[in-house]
Amino acid sequence: MPMDRALLKEARRHGSPAFPVRMYHFLCPPDQPLLDLHWHEELEFFLVTKGRAVLRVGAEDYEVSAGDAVFVASGELHSGSVAGKDAVAFSAAVFHADLLSGSAPDELRQRYILPLLERKYEVPVLLDRRNGDSAALLDMLKQLFEIDRTRPFGYELAVRGMLQTCVSLLLRTAFRTEQTRRAGAAQRTTRIKEALEYIERHYAEPIRLAELASAVSMSEAYFCRFFKRITASTPVEYINLYRVRQAAILLRTTDKKIMEIALEVGFRNLGYFNAVFRQRFGCTPTEYRQRGASGG
Q1: What is the pTM of this model?
Q2: In CATH, which of 3.30.1490.100, 4.10.280.10, 3.40.228.10, 1.10.10.60 is domain 178-296?
């Protein structure tokens, strides 16, 4: 089941309160966006099963191939794109930390889970077979996604146990971080989220860079450098891409005219809207709507 990629902080619930985990299996064509920038409170393991991709976690890019995985910490901004001319297949496990130990204080939560959530441990993002613990973790992830496809009796017990094992193997590679480093990273993440959420609230209106920078208490010049370092896009590029993602939702769910949609999401020029849309989705808005109508 595809995620709603238009939201920055995902509003969806992954799983249920009683079993807070959800598995996702995707095949992304090379001409389509893989993952738009977003974040969620849950932890995530993301395993590439076919093709190559570039995944951005925080401010770093990671090149991953079939058999590699990445770990995304709670609250971490992340996005991805297809690398090369072939489609990318991947499976993802998105789970709340309560699945591992419950929400009540116990030794597991106090000793392992809370330090992980509070970034007191620095764990690797890229998981490949060059490290023994990472290799074992990758094998466990493969088993996890296989059992998700078959869902035998005892499925929930198996999933919880496998994810606990995955996190245990992840923590074996961890080392403790300094308080000042954690505080600096947390402040940077908070500021960029504030900027992104400002865009999410005001994308249908004209957004001036000076206003956006002021909203996060930065000078315009510093904000532009800071924004691109974290998101790999300029503020204007990101605003336009966010707008066409909103337009794509309206194209799928309404029969509004193309010009009406362009104006509704913040574009004032139809030709520019069409150009940005094609750059993102590889087709015109009209073609995108026709594909949706035909199930393509």
Answers
A1: 0.80
A2: 1.10.10.60
